[in-house]
Design goal:
By secondary structure, this protein is of the alpha/beta class. Helix content is 42%, strand content 18%. It is globular.
């Protein structure tokens, strides 16, 4: 279950899901951002099972697959890893034909740095033939090597009384560090930030250019920086467009492109058709707070002083940590946010098997009853479906604030065993 990145060994808890998927699916796609560990994970599983490995970052292999995708697939070994498959979109249709002739489980492991779910023709071509696993940058419990039970506890509806060590400045340090393995190998914050900047340049020059014909490629890093400043806020394309000499539709297309390469994501609203006063605008989140911090030029010291930015990056940090844990949870989890027209909101809403859990995020070391206003509204709205509502804060103690309402230290996210 371990992934080696030079001198550091990290556990990837998605590995068991990959092994299980190969037992009954002809193709398993592991997709996620570049440098998050997809290839290493695929090879960790594939090398033990006798898979051959081909990468389309190799120009020769790329040209061969583009010239004759059907012939290329026909010549593949019985078990093959195809790396960075988004660079050859025509290969999906050739793989479909091959699988239809032989649906034996575990034939292919694919990795991709582009979200094929956002390209309907590609995802539909392998519907029913391919299992898809999302790999994220490292979570905090993967970094510590101990798997957390936070999501199970949330939907069980009750936290046990327990004390945790307060994070303090360590919290901002974790936010700024992010979760990319190669960045975490760099001990000095300036060197980590340099890695993130080089990472963005590489993505823009390689993946963005491959995926779309963009007339103003240089706008993408600036747009991503602007999006980093808007993380954990409602999506506002007009505000983004105002900073560029580009139309709103163009900016919208660029945002979708950044979402396709796993740098941005939209958190959809939770709403009910019975309630007309709910906001139906998604929230914008960067997919990693280390990346966001580098884009914004903030380090541990400056982030600690800017409480407003700390609050927004902390919300993104908590959202991404819980979402990373959900990627290996036994039961699927859907994520939303909740907000009504009076400004009453819940930062993160989790939904699993009809149950609802709400998570509000606070950077403070104390919690008051006012902090539960949004969670109580969500509780009233969802009724018996409501499993729990928690305010995550930088404190030490789990405290009950009424039926199914708790204040929970942020450290519990990765230390609930």
């Amino acid at each position: 279950m371990d992934v080696m990145t030079e001198s550091r060994l990290y556990s990837r808890f998605t590995q068991n899901r990959l092994v299980e998927a190969l037992e009954d699916s002809p193709i398993v796609l592991v997709h996620g951002p570049r440098q998050c560990g997809k290839t290493t994970l695929a090879r960790m599983v594939g090398d033990k099972a006798g898979y051959e490995h081909i990468t389309f970052d190799d120009d020769v292999q790329l040209a061969a697959a583009q010239a004759d995708p059907v012939g290329f697939v026909a010549d593949l070994a019985d078990k093959t890893i195809l790396d960075e498959v988004q660079r050859v979109p025509t290969l999906f249709f050739a793989l479909k034909a091959a699988i239809d002739r032989n649906r034996r489980p575990g034939r292919f492991i694919l990795t991709g740095s582009s979200n094929v779910l956002l390209v309907p023709k590609l995802s539909d071509s392998l519907a029913g033939r391919m299992d898809i696993l999302r790999l994220h940058p490292l979570s905090q419990d993967e970094i510590t090597g101990k798997i957390s039970r936070l999501i199970d506890v949330l939907f069980a509806g009750q936290f046990e009384n327990r004390r945790f060590e307060r994070l303090g400045s360590e919290l901002a340090d974790r936010i700024v560090a992010g979760g990319y393995p190669a960045a975490l190998l760099r001990a000095k914050p300036k060197r980590r930030a340099a890695w993130y900047h080089a990472y963005i340049e590489t993505l823009v020059q390689r993946d963005a250019r491959d995926l779309a014909r963009i007339s103003s490629l240089g706008s993408l890093p600036r747009l991503l920086q602007l999006a980093a400043g808007q993380t954990a806020r409602l999506v506002n394309v007009a505000e983004m467009a105002s900073a560029f000499q580009l139309s709103r539709p163009t900016i919208r297309d660029y945002v979708v492109l950044l979402e396709r390469i796993f740098l941005l994501e939209h958190l959809p609203p939770w709403y009910s058709n019975r309630l007309s006063r709910l906001i139906k605008t998604p929230k914008l989140h960067l997919t990693d707070t280390g990346l966001a911090s580098a884009l914004l030029g903030v380090d541990l010291s400056s982030l600690t002083k800017d409480r407003t930015l700390l609050g927004r990056l902390l919300e993104t940090f908590v959202f991404q940590e819980i979402k990373r844990q959900a990627s290996w949870n036994e039961s699927p989890v859907r994520f939303h946010h909740f907000r009504n027209k009076d400004g009453v909101e819940v930062d993160i809403v989790l939904e699993q098997a009809g149950k609802i859990a709400g998570v509000e995020v606070k950077a403070a070391a104390t919690v008051t009853r006012k902090d539960f206003r949004g969670l109580k509204k969500l509780q009233d709205t969802t009724g018996k479906r409501f499993a729990i509502g928690v305010v995550m804060y930088d404190g030490e103690t789990i405290v009950g604030f009424g039926e199914k309402l708790y204040a929970v230290p942020i450290r519990a996210i990765w230390e609930t065993f």
